What we know:
Chain A is an alpha/beta fold. Chain A contains 27 helices and 18 strands.
Amino acid sequence: xxxxxxxVSDILPDFxxxxxxxxxxxxxxxxxxxxxxxxxxxxxxxxxxxMAMAPLAHVLFQRVLRHDPADPTxxxxxxxxxxxxxxxxxxxxxxxxxxxxxxxxxxxxxxxLDSRTPGHPELGHTPGVEMSTGPLGQGxxxxxxLALAARRDAALHDARVWDPTVFVLAGxxxxxxxxxxxxxxxAGTLGLxxxxxxxxxxxxxxxxxxxxxFGEDVRARYRSYGWRVIDVADARDLDVLETALRDGAMxxxxxxxxxxxxxxxxxxxxxxxTPAAHAGGFGAEEVAAVQAMLGFAPDxxxxxxxxxxxLAWARQAIxxxxxxxxxxxxxxxxxxxxxxxxxRRRAALEAGSAQPGARGGSDPDAGDALALLDAIxxxxxxxxxxxxxxxxxxxxxxxxxxxxxxxSADLSGSTNVAVPGSAVSAIEPGGDFVHFGIREHAMAxxxxxxxxxxLWRPYGSTYLAFSDYxxxxxxxxxxxxxxVIHVYTHDSVAVGExxxxxxxxxxxxxxxxxxxxSVIRPADAAEVVAVWRRVLEQPDGPVALVLSRQDIPxxxxxxxxxxxxxxxxxxxxxxxxxxxxxxxxxxSEVHLAIEAARRLAAEGIAARVVSMPCWEWFxxxxxxxxxxxxxxxxxxxxAVEAGRGDAWHRWVGLDGRVVSIEEFGESGAxxxxxxxxxxxxxxxxxxxxxxxxR
Amino acid sequence: xxxxxxxVSDILPDFxxxxxxxxxxxxxxxxxxxxxxxxxxxxxxxxxxxMAMAPLAHVLFQRVLRHDPADPTxxxxxxxxxxxxxxxxxxxxxxxxxxxxxxxxxxxxxxxLDSRTPGHPELGHTPGVEMSTGPLGQGxxxxxxLALAARRDAALHDARVWDPTVFVLAGxxxxxxxxxxxxxxxAGTLGLxxxxxxxxxxxxxxxxxxxxxFGEDVRARYRSYGWRVIDVADARDLDVLETALRDGAMxxxxxxxxxxxxxxxxxxxxxxxTPAAHAGGFGAEEVAAVQAMLGFAPDxxxxxxxxxxxLAWARQAIxxxxxxxxxxxxxxxxxxxxxxxxxRRRAALEAGSAQPGARGGSDPDAGDALALLDAIxxxxxxxxxxxxxxxxxxxxxxxxxxxxxxxSADLSGSTNVAVPGSAVSAIEPGGDFVHFGIREHAMAxxxxxxxxxxLWRPYGSTYLAFSDYxxxxxxxxxxxxxxVIHVYTHDSVAVGExxxxxxxxxxxxxxxxxxxxSVIRPADAAEVVAVWRRVLEQPDGPVALVLSRQDIPxxxxxxxxxxxxxxxxxxxxxxxxxxxxxxxxxxSEVHLAIEAARRLAAEGIAARVVSMPCWEWFxxxxxxxxxxxxxxxxxxxxAVEAGRGDAWHRWVGLDGRVVSIEEFGESGAxxxxxxxxxxxxxxxxxxxxxxxxR
Lengths: 694, 694
């Protein structure tokens, strides 16, 4: 029946089973009542899942999760990711009850400007939040990446001390999203048995019962991925939940799905089990009824919903955490003594991860990452080489450093990210690279999880055109400033024969719109190395490295200095004072720009070419630099880029000219397609003359 | 073992079984040999899958598919979508052999500029191609949408005559992509038994054997979705293939997966079964060996690979198609005679679909679509109303017309697309709307399939922030100029409390970068109605309707004429000659702009406000209109939009000012977030003064 899910008629009066004391029972009652009360008081927010999953969250935070409320980023902790981010009150309530410093006033202020309790959990904003979530499915895929990194850590460093369990809570929405399906399939193949996915099987979505659009057998699906499935028929029994979670966390070679039948909005009888329980208040009367049912006064105010004894009981989590933490400190010391080499390697990695310029990496004797970069021999002047190839050389060299971890979505050869070593697999958890499969979206989202783990800079690779599959994950990592490196090759219609579906046209412009993502398109081998230096030195958010499939020459007349490329834009070629016209370009088009500028110079025109590998960096450069590169008085400006050009008017203005590609490409030889789409020296020349003439 | 898939040792000499004549056998031999030869001759392209799947394609085109080579768009045809688009030679070879007009010279010219045989199949470019494919997974989801539309057609019009079977061929890549998983799950729930998904189970991807990243049990997964699975252990036996396809096409309430074990690059022994068979030539020697194995001269040239008898046999497909077509014409006439009412309704729909301005729709007596639009009563002046609400009214009214078909990704209430009627389901195939589930990507891709079916204008809806999940599908529909309507509500940080994950900032700018997509952001109820008129009148590609969550006022001083809004930009408010400063804006920000302009006017400054609901349309407007709206000499310009602003410099130049949002939002009341992010009348005013002062 649409609109009604699991049966709620049998839930009373024994609303929670398995509490070991009255105080524990009262703590659970508080955890259920708080979200109902807060949402009703505010008139908006999501209470239904926070109520129904309160016993589960209670068991996690009080019985199962290794965590230390006094030190939310304790390295030895297990992880809990709330993929169903709208149920943020579920998490905030536990962070209050177990002593992370969130107070009732914070809960009451949820979803208000400057509160510590935003509508969806935000990493870095609230202690105890492991990942920003909200867009559905992303938390599941992030958890898979985190579990993958954690398992590699344990494998490479011979230590159960570095072996957390990753728990993730997902609703039907998360499991309908393709990104979670992709990641879950890979988790099964890789045998990530440190991962427990808890599915809130409440049979309800916003538009109605799940049967309207989600009739599949989720348990069978997860079994088909190679997961173990633990069925929990009753989400209200603490002991049953504890057993399921502990069983799920067992290292038996398979990730685990804990399928938890529940009733959204439980224990409300009027709203529970209906789509109306998803969002918004349940009504004053119904909240009063719920409070009464839970043993509170029907008219209890917020402060009365957490009784002193219950809070005192719940706050024992602090002592429990301190004990776990102290015990872990001892284990870690014992491990370090027994495994000095592994400890040294890991410490170096940890140092390198935060500060790649320092000596670090899995093989510190190989020198630090920047020294490895410096040692790369650039191709001979006059030897054209694709920037994807130079990038491949960089990745191979950096393997010696060991501070990177990533792979490809089934294009390791074409994107030149194949590095020596072994692939990560169920039997090779410490492998060197990841075959993500043909799963661009999950790859991007898993890279976020690897970044959250924190030991390695994650990278992934595919064709630039397929960045379209990844944007939802990239946006979230930009929001978290996760320092992920996206390697995108085949960066224009110069891809050629594969045709318009594989030829990016709008992707560079579209990626530049994501706040906090640095889009970097180097123009030759030297720029590739130079931009990598900044990427390693300043891991302050995700970057997209946009690289050519085709060979392109070296910038023969420019001696590319790291500082120049790292400034995002610099004068790569100039005649005279270069004040007659400026031609701005990125990547392969810089060479067209220089050729056009040379022809102008032959006529005595003082042209300059500005290579702008990264707009975002150029914006961050100081004004004096920017004005020197692009003198404000120099208004005859041309931009050339083999992609959509509107945003280039930011740099060239109304009077400037933009040589760009405004429509899709076509199948044919790359050079022929470029020419047909107007990316030619002649076009740049004509544009320059026109800009000068105005 | 990585790099080797299914065993190829037993394939000789009986390379094809089940041919009913030597001529048929020779036709199959040609179909295998042609791709191998062509790719080797060109040095690039994809032969492996085209070779291995040649018997399957042969059986489809010669025995199973209802098609008419002389009339590729015959309405009664079955559909075949090649989701594994890189295997385009598989399709082109059949289009040659069965007489669609592709010649050997076309095959030889494949992947060349202006050839009829681009690298990936392109709709509208090559007769017989049903959908542009290439980005993996999209063809599967498109096929699900097409099957859904076809089944609805049959259900609503009581006719098996309108009941094609949709076949789609996918590789491992397609099945690893989340978009295919989402669509397949929904296909199972909806019981689309007119859909046959053929999986080329060759156990190989580009980076190695599928075990490296795809260890799941695909058959079990599809069973978990509610699909029937037919296993074919040998992809070389024509009779076995025919039986499997015919069984798959049976209407038994479930979609069918035909799992076809194959050897990529078969019958090559040296390259077959390895990742090297995916792309590139097999080498002259190996191609010679393959040709010999198939009974051709080792050094046979292209023309010798299709023997006259074999071609004559294959071209019997033309007669077979003509007979099917003629028979269908008779059935159609009989149906029309027996079901005059259904025939009248369908004819009206067909006419309306192509030309919504004409009287049409499922209930022609309700008047034509445009009349329905004209009859919508706009809110009282001074009554603020969210554009999503007005859009909802439009959708409800157009239900009477019946020319739209779509739904929502579990947000039908919030996006105001809930229309009266029943949901499509397994038992209600003719339902009025689709619950796509929480599957934004599959929704978008399925809308493409509905558009390809051609009877209805498809629409979908979600929050604007989640358009990020859909871009790969939107790009493909832009490439095909598929007239899909994307309804995106909650269009700025004014979303408020749900916070930055749900607040779009970069999406409007990012969508504008997709060539051929019209991004439309109306500023009030009148503009909503006006832009719908153009959307219905000119179905020339996908559109994104970007709508507010919050109430916004009516443009009281502007009498919004359809022609103005349909021009993409017009003067919505003006003081004096409006030549002192122009303030450009879209959507909710138009009202801020007007308030700022009023204040300037109070000081005697001749300000104008330009509402620009659609940049793409404005670009297409004639120059005189554009110059009247934005006089070239008027250089004091300001743009205001609650999102990333770089591209607005295209309209305001270097001297202009852009009031925009360059970083993510935050959780809080919508109005407070807007203010904190600088979208205020004061900010617009200051920008205008600054622009004037320059």
